[in-house]
Amino acid sequence: MEQLSPAYFALVMATGIVSIGASDFGLPLLATGLFAFNLAAYVVLACLTALRSIRYPQAFLADMTDHRRGPGFLTAAAASCILGAQFLSMARSLAAATVLLALGMVLWAGLTYTIFTALTIKRDKPPLQDGLTGAWLIAVVAAQSIAVLAALIAREWPQPLRLELNFLALAMWSWGGMFYIWIISLIFYRETFFTFSPGDLTPPYWINMGAMAISTLAGAQLAQNAPDAPFLAVLLPFLNGLTVFYWATGTWWIPMLLVLTTWQHLIRRFPLRYDPLHWGAVFPLGMYAVATKQMAATLQLPFLAPLPAAVFVAALAAWTLAFAALAWQITRKLARWWR
Known about the structure:
The protein has 339 residues and is mainly α. It has helices at residues 10-24, 28-55, 57-64, 75-90, 94-121, 128-131, 138-154, 161-193, 207-224, 230-234, 236-267, 279-298, 306-338. The two termini are 20 Å apart.
């Protein structure tokens, strides 16, 4: 428990988006099964994280102020909102979705300002190539997950609350996009101007794409909500244009990440072992599939229809492999414990 990864809530993020994707692609039994598993995983991880903060406060705080591990805590905010989206779309529970949105916002605000304040004022800081990873973009995903859930809930609430929630979604979408520009500039600089070894290519680098995918989904949902909010109607060309911009940026990253992953494991022979961070690679695939499907429907782009289906199959396969590796690791640990 002391070594529990702060980013383990990425399991909930990955399972949640694959579940939503299964529902969107006409697989209701799979979607429901993953929803049940995800709810249990969320509760277990919340309890383990709370126990870790109580039993091992020094390790907990050290992680929160660590440049590499600290941003991983923001997976809790993103996971809360993605689980809320599941409650809304599958269980039709507006109350649960609203509670999880509120929790996600509290976690996002508390963790964002705690972590980045600590990283700003701490005396001993690592060099850029040692302290910066793709996990920093979880801050973008957390903000955009609030935008997604707020936009979904806004459709269920009466006016004027519907107007206010849509504005919240727009504000978080805008902030997340700006934060992506800040962080991805540093990441691209780090990748191209510093030595990049196979061990540096951790799975969260797939969030380079995943952050743009969830930004695409939030943009498509805001465009769909334009009839309910005059300020969204005025901004509709901007919303649609920036949504395509986000999607194109995320799409560019996919071949690049595939090439780098091939270089890492097939050329440089870097071993592939289970790590909680692997869920950070599953989530972007599922999110890209769902976001592309939503964007294509919103902007009437039927020629994109084969793409999200193909990527969803890849996301489901990646989730299955990650889950099998997790189950195997748990089985081995239990076997050693019984001995």
